[in-house]
Specification:
The protein has helices at residues 38-46, 67-88, 99-102, 112-119, 123-135, 157-181, 183-196, and strands at 4-7, 10-13, 30-31, 139-144, 147-155. The protein has 197 residues and is of the alpha+beta class. The strands form 2 sheets. A 3-stranded antiparallel beta sheet has the order 1-2-3, with no helix packed on it. It starts with a strand and ends with a helix.
Length: 197
């Protein structure tokens, strides 16, 4: 982690906090972006106000009209709740990013490069996620029967427990959303979304 201090509107690296292998002379002060409050951001975004790099000056507005943001927010809420409950049931080392592994594993195993492709993240990021889960006993790397040089990642018995818990938790979350929205509204919503995909 880099530690910085604010000096004259700029972020500066504190002594002794540069990344390993990077000389202090290669690090530069990063200008601090002006704070934009939410109520200022929406009109500026609508007006097309952009910064020097051509990016909108905003935290993304919480607009109910933006379907993509709404769907992302629902996914985020459900994912956080899922992982919170998985942690409460004995697996605190499984966190939301690990869904990028569990969500794309084949029963017989999957190469790290294929997991990364499916999750749309770098191989290095996927390798770190797999290494964490392997250290905690959720996955293992086994020889690929089709390529003796390659390894496949597959769930262990402990990893299979997480799948079972996740199925139960997702059913609980769906029951809670059904209670909030009503069975018919939720069924219609799911049908419309499925038909649209």
């Amino acid at each position: 982690m880099l530690l910085v201090e604010l000096v004259g509107g700029e972020s500066r690296l504190l002594d002794g906090c540069q990344p390993a292998g990077v000389s202090r002379s290669r690090l530069r002060a990063v200008p601090r972006r002006p704070q934009v409050h939410h109520e200022q951001a929406i009109p500026r975004l609508r007006a097309g106000v952009q910064d020097e790099a051509g990016l909108p000056q905003t935290p993304a507005p919480r607009s109910r009209a933006n379907l993509g943001l709404l769907l992302r927010e629902l996914y985020r809420i459900a994912s956080e709740e899922l992982h919170k409950r998985i942690g409460e049931r004995g697996h605190p080392d499984v966190r939301p990013p690990h869904g990028n592994v569990f969500g794309f594993l084949d029963d017989e195993g999957t190469p790290v490069s294929e997991l990364a492709r499916r999750a749309q993240i770098t191989k290095q990021s996927m390798a770190e996620l797999v290494a964490h889960l392997e250290r905690h006993g959720y996955v293992e790397r086994v020889p690929d029967p089709g390529d003796r040089r390659a390894k496949l990642v597959r769930a262990t018995a402990r990893g299979s427990e997480v799948y079972a818990i996740a199925r139960d938790v997702l059913a609980e979350i769906e029951r809670e959303w059904t209670a909030r929205l009503g069975a018919r509204r939720l069924r219609d919503l799911l049908q419309e979304l499925n038909d649209g995909l």
